[in-house]
Amino acid sequence: MIVASLVPLQSAIFAVVALAAPAVALTRDPLRQIVVNGFYGWALVILFSVLQAPDVALSMLVVGGLAYPIVVLIAVARVRAGKPKDEGGE
Amino acid sequence: MSRRVRIGIFLAAAASFGALLIWGFIGLTDFGHYKGPYGYVLNRVALPERHMTNVVTSAVFDYRGFDTMGEEFILFASVVGVVLLLRSEGREDDEMEDDTGSDTVRVFGTLMVGGSLLVALWLIAFGFVTPGGGFQGGVALAGGAALLFLAAGYGPFKVLGNETALDPIEGIGAGGYVVVGLAGLVSGAAFLQNVLGPGVPGTLWSGGSAALVNWCAGAEVAAANLILFSQFLEEYLVPLAGKQQS
């Protein structure tokens, strides 16, 4: 079902998602990538909300905003904490 | 491999993938138009049959409850795998460092833990009335506990991320789902069939068995994510603590 008043908003958010997705892939530094990915996840949450799928938006919110960044952040922190000490300083 | 060859391979792959994508999109229905009958049928029958105002949850935990059970066990198995790989013996929790610098962060962060846990429980409890459910609420519950680590450090987090308490909760969550399903069989109906009656629409007393199954999924997902977080956190903190001592 198309809600006419929502279409401009939906198009705008589609554009944001289309820009944010390659931005995630083009970011090289993992730490920055988590932040960019968070922005991408947020854009998807807004997209699902304006497409009137609040359950999917909530799932995206908890996975993109909590579970995924926590696991990746800890993994990145672990790798960075291990490296300089093994090599004797940066 | 030279840059030229790589770009050549990329262009060929991108062109064929793009062609497939465009071909696929041409066959789609127009934006905003839905072809399948399943959604229309559920929209019509979910409220009268199951008394659940959130039709999505009625599909996830009732009409397609068996699929959700499979998904729950995928999560269960993967977390068991992570624990098998990462859990090691002889760790001393006292060695973990506790280095939140600012008192303001500690106070307000810890206050927010309570708020986020409350929101998470609300998401689970009202999952079949308003958007939400066991999965979303479960992850939010684990996220609230992770906030405790960020705000107050590893010691307080360990109270919530305690694996001797979490392992049984995860097991009971996964097993409870099957038990509710078997209750349907025992009472002479189908597996996972609602045996408690539909209840009053729009209240917590709606959904019948689906409400129980929803709480089981919430417990399983919350415990699974917390176990995952605390395993990763230990992996991050333990070698650091060991190295600082030596």
Structure description:
- The complex is a heterodimer of chains A (90) and B (246).
- Chain A is mainly alpha-helical.
- Chain A has one domain (7-85).
- In chain A, 82% of the residues lie in helices and 0% in strands.
- Chain A is built from three helices and no strands.
- The model of chain A is unreliable at 85-90 (pLDDT under 50).
- Chain B starts with a helix and ends with a helix.
- Chain B has one domain.
- By secondary structure, chain B is mainly α.
- Chain B has helices at residues 3-26, 37-50, 55-63, 65-86, 103-125, 134-152, 154-160, 163-186, 209-245.
- Chain B contains nine helices and no strands.
- Chain B is globular, with a radius of gyration of 23 Å.
- The model of chain B has no long low-confidence stretch (mean pLDDT 86).
- Helix content of chain B is 73%, strand content 0%.
- In chain B, helix 4 runs antiparallel to helix 8, helix 5 packs antiparallel against helix 6 and helix 6 (134-152) runs antiparallel to helix 7 (154-160).
- Chain A binds chain B through residues 1-2, 54-55, 57-59, 61-63, 65-67, 70-71, 74-75, 77-78, 81-82, 85, and chain B through 31-34, 54, 56-57, 123, 131-133, 135-136, 139-140, 142-143, 146, 225, 228-229, 232-233, 235-236, 239-240, 243.
Query: Helix share of residues of chain B?
Result: over 70%
Which segments of chain A are poorly predicted (pLDDT under 50) over 5 or more consecutive residues? 85-90
Q: β content of chain B, as a range? A: under 5%
SS field, number of helical segments of chain B: 9
Largest sheet of chain A: none
Determine the structural class of chain A based on helices, strands and strand pairing.
Answer: mainly alpha
Give the SSE map.
The complex is a heterodimer of chains A (90) and B (246).
Chain A: H1 7-26, H2 30-50, H3 54-86
Chain B: H1 3-26, H2 37-50, H3 55-63, H4 65-86, H5 103-125, H6 134-152, H7 154-160, H8 163-186, H9 209-245
